[in-house]
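Hi C.,

You asked whether I'd gotten around to modeling the 262-residue construct. I have! Everything is below, sequence then structure, no commentary in between.
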Amino acid sequence: MWQTFIIQPMTNLLLWIYDILGHGPHTFGFAIILFTILIKLATWPLNASQVKGAQAMQELQNDKEWIEIQKKYAKDKEKLAQEQMRIYKDRGINPFASCLPTLIQFPIIIGLYQSITRALSATPFNMLQLARTVYPFQNVEHIIPLNSKFLWMDLGRPESIQVLGFALPTLAIIVALTTWVQSKLTMPASNNPNDQSAQMTKMMGIYMPLMLGWFALNFASGIAVYFIVSNILGVVQYAATGRANWSNLFGGGNKTITTTKK
């Protein structure tokens, strides 16, 4: 099923886009960029769900009942979690909606890596796998071997630039940075430090840039190109809704409510 529904369609889509663009230098990089745009369009409903979920979570932070349970059960984490789930259910809010598009990327990441490796056919084994993967309509004999060069990169290998004798992983840094920016913009502002859902979202905002940066550092640079384009499109899409939380980028997104006793 993995081969049939993930690897084969993705490999053939990459080859088809590459063929349409004309097989020239840098073409495979542009094929990955166009592929990323198509993936974004296909996952548009999930991204719309993320926007809606993030907005609902942000509005919830200022809800009177939500703030009250944070204070009332601050020392009883189990009861607090139960009350939070009750409010989620009553309001029809999915607390994981903002994380789903990020998690759905993982099979795409794995599939894209295997598709790039297979499409480039760097070894006889990869060539044999490619022959078993392509659909009959593909003119493989006219496009293989693929030109894997894009700008200064070999898209089939991890990327780095030599600076003063050191290998600087430029793309990995850009991947981590753009992932962090995207997570910050979509992160709902939390008014309460005891809010467990906000803490979970905040941790995701730390782990995801590090994880995707690690992927970009150790795997084919074609994956890093996908990450960067996907992140930029995600930021543009979210900003276009007018709900991007720009204050999070400058440390002003999380403010703790203080109360005074009368």
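If it helps when you're writing up: The radius of gyration is 22 Å.

Thanks,
B.
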